[in-house]
Amino acid sequence: MSDQFAKDALLPIQVAQIQALRADPELMSMLSGDGVFDHVPEGTPRPYIVVGEAIETPSNSHQRYGKQAVATNHVWSENKGYREALLILNRMVAVLEQQPLMVEGFHHVSTKFEFSQTLRDPDPKIRHALARFRITVQQGPRF
Length: 143
Fold this sequence. Notes:
elongated; 143 residues; 39% strand; alpha+beta; 22% helix
């Protein structure tokens, strides 16, 4: 396999998600500050989204090399109850699900929403919701 086509897709997919989420004015109006992070700076007020954990697997076709990432994004809120976190989560899903992503070095094939979940944080003031997406990308000719 040529090194040219052996690229890891996780970082370009992460960057593409952050760019897509930050480009949505409705979503950004629901968040504090920059609102979408890989690393949250100390003291950043909630609510915000963290583009979190991801798993990458090959997803090759006969003509192209491909990658599939299962990416988990987190919503953090200090609002009482889950309402704020779930409204943000629903908007995040609308921005990403089946929408084109600009993934550097790859052709974006699809983004599919898999599931969402609410979680209790050890700090009773904090609400946590997450959504998982399956993102498929391809690159160049295989042969």
